[in-house]
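Session log. Operator J.P. requested a structure for one protein chain; no other inputs attached. Running the standard single-chain path with token output.
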Amino acid sequence: MQINPLVAKVWLVVFLVSGITLHSNAQQLTAPASDFSESTSYPVTPNNDMIYYFCTQQGQQIAELQAESAGGVVTFNWTKYNSSTGTFDAYTTESGASSVIQNLADGCYQVSFTDGGANYSFRAWVFNSWLQATAAVSASTCTSFQLESTVTGSTFAYYDITSNQQVTVASNDTYAWYGGDVRLSTQPAFTMYDVPAQNTDYRLEVTNRAGCLATATVTYQSVVPEAKFSWTTTQKSDPQYSNYQAPLEVQFNNESVNADDDKYEWFLFKDITAIREEASTATQPVDSIMETLTGVNPVYTYENSGRYMVKLVAAKENPNFTCRDTFYLGDYIVADTALVLVPPVFTPNGDGMNDVLKIKTRSLESLDFQILNRWGRTVHHYKKSGYIPADSELAAWDGKIGGKPASAGVYFYVVDAKGRDGTRRRRKGFIHLIR
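Structure written below.
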């Protein structure tokens, strides 16, 4: 199909009628260095223009625009919109295949040029977008504190080119608070209820509609303690026993954080069984505390057998208030009951191995140990009263009766013992004597 050259030439000409600009794809006005762009929403002017945002610092002007011809050298005439008069004032003139104007103040810029016999005109708004944020801690108590932000930044407003009517663009700031890498809130201010016992940094990130970012960090100065402890004992463990024995000396190891050394309270509870028995018959509330200790790392001896719970209260004094935290052991401290272990076999044959019947005791005040033959006659009697050292191994029978070796066979034993907890223990069983 033949195209009339005159018609083709007409399509290349840009008509400037009522602010409408027609142009080809080669000729353009852009802002390659901008961080964000969007279109205007003019109330009256029918054709909208681009708005380019440049993230920068307060007081700095880094906005720039770039106009291009189809490749030929042209004269670019730049003007800037004057909102006071509603007209465009001369700004600068440059020649070349392209023109870049830099360090621009906020506003609308228009460029006009003739390229290949056609007239072109483009407009665009630019904003130097800056954002500043500060973070602060307030209303700090034992249970919470407030994280607050203060944000300042650019205001964005453009004007309808036809009516000179101002259009304000909201900044649309978004907020994000972080504790480490964990996002805590998206509000400008919020209350933190997970109060740490250490001084902790919190980071605020604020982003405006252009994607410009401002950050701030604030350190929370902790006013709360964190109570924690463990316990150890120097009493040697024995694989034959699952628990330690009474008397049991316990070293409490304080692992608390941010507490005052003179404000620790250790609450030692009574044996759990005794508490339950007392509560079952009591008409008044039962006092379950056996003893209260102070100090950082106290030592306590459990004289009697039982299962004991311990509570630590740690405190930190502040100018207007004192904060406390409580920690309970995950399990009971167990001081075992009185116990006697009698081996089932011994061999008094003079080989130096297992020649003596040795019994192991635990937490005893007294022991009465008898050996009987199969007719029920007592052939050996061992008795011990008073303090019996922890985990004693007592040589209870050498395998002789009246100084003579006893016959091999099965013997019967009876234990009558009194524990250090005052409980009487009785036990019966059989022993094999092998020659």
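Operator note: The mean pLDDT is 90.
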